[in-house]
């Protein structure tokens, strides 16, 4: 009996602070480990993968690293979903080691980087309604973040 059936993973934000020494692939591989560990621990899990959000850090190396990691994350989700789509069409459901049927679900990708921008579109300055400082959101921002994630998973929980 599973305790939960949805896992949402947002990671990598703190890793970006080491933009001078970390490579995108290193940050991504750590996230990939979390994704795969989640699915291996429960093949019936619905995994929600969230891009690294924008921030007020305007160092070009930092911003480029975030972009590179987010591209790797999105590519991974797309390839994973294509793979399970092609496997489902040829094999149907598979049995796990306990003889029960598993239903491998596509990953849900939430592009929070673009759905919750740091800058106000009109003024091109920090959106103080949703952002508290260069890295953290306000309570209103976290509420919006939660609503965005919920909208992506709403169909599977209703």
Question: Topology of this structure?
Answer:
Layout: E1 6-10, H1 24-41, E2 46-50, H2 60-91, E3 94-95, E4 101-102, E5 108-110, H3 112-115, H4 139-157
Helix pairs in contact: 1-2
Global geometry = globular
Mean model confidence by pLDDT: 90
Q: What ranges have pLDDT less than 50 throughout 5 or more consecutive residues? A: 93-99
Helical element count? 4
Category from helices, strands and their pairing: mainly alpha
Question: What report would you give on this structure?
Answer:
The longest helix has 32 residues, at 60-91. The protein is mostly helical and 158 residues long. It is globular, with a radius of gyration of 17 Å. The protein contains 4 helices and 5 strands. The chain has helices at residues 24-41, 60-91, 112-115, 139-157; strands spanning 6-10, 46-50, 94-95, 101-102, 108-110.
